[in-house]
Amino acid sequence: MNLHFREYFSGIAKWISDKAAESYVSFVAFCIVVVWAFAGLFLHFSLMWHLMISTLAAVISILMLFIIQNSQNRHTIAIQLKLDEIIRATHGAHNEMMDIEKLTDEDLGRIQKKYGLLAEKTKEDLKKGKRDTHTPDLGKTEELLTELL
Predict the structure, then answer these.
(1) What angle, rounded to 10 degrees, do the helices at 47-89 and 3-20 form?
(2) pTM of the entire structure?
(3) What is the pLDDT of residues 19-57, one digit of tens each?
(4) DSSP conformational letter for 43
(5) Which listed site, 39, 60, 130, 132, has its alpha carbon 20 to 30 Å from 91?
């Protein structure tokens, strides 16, 4: 896909998602439904009357689905980049965590288990009166596991 076209679509998608989030858009949508319902009286609630709103609602719903997904992806990437910057700038943080969203489910499960073990170890330390504000090494999860068992 052409880069210029992608930037153009991205700008349009951002503009639509920004406008769709404004309160007056809900009011306009409500007014359209009221006009449609009132028109039903004059059209004797015909099949054409039903098809008109059903088709319009389906088309708008599908388009908004893609617009919302585009907006969510943009926001997710922005949040991820901000978190990556916090990790990068924090002394003692594990820089390997910066691209963690690209890992497989199995890899994420292993890391989650390491953090779970760390949490258990910290709970044990708190019971013994120790601090929980230190930065232990995650590489030593085997030691944590043997201490907990």
Answers:
(1) 110
(2) 0.62
(3) 888 999 989 989 988 998 898 888 888 998 889 889 988
(4) T
(5) 130
Enclosing H/E stretch for 105: helix 105-127
- Residue 97: CB atoms within 10 A of its CB come to 15
Rounded Cα gap, residues 72 and 17, in angstroms: 10
- In the chain, which residues have pLDDT < 50? 145, 148-149
| Strand, helix or coil for residue 20 | helix
* Dihedral sign of CA atoms 95, 100, 103, 106 in order: positive
* Closest C-alpha to 67, from 20, 27, 17, 111: 17
Q: Which tokens is 104 given?
A: 């497989």
- Residue 122 has a pLDDT of 84
Place of tokens 């076209």: 5
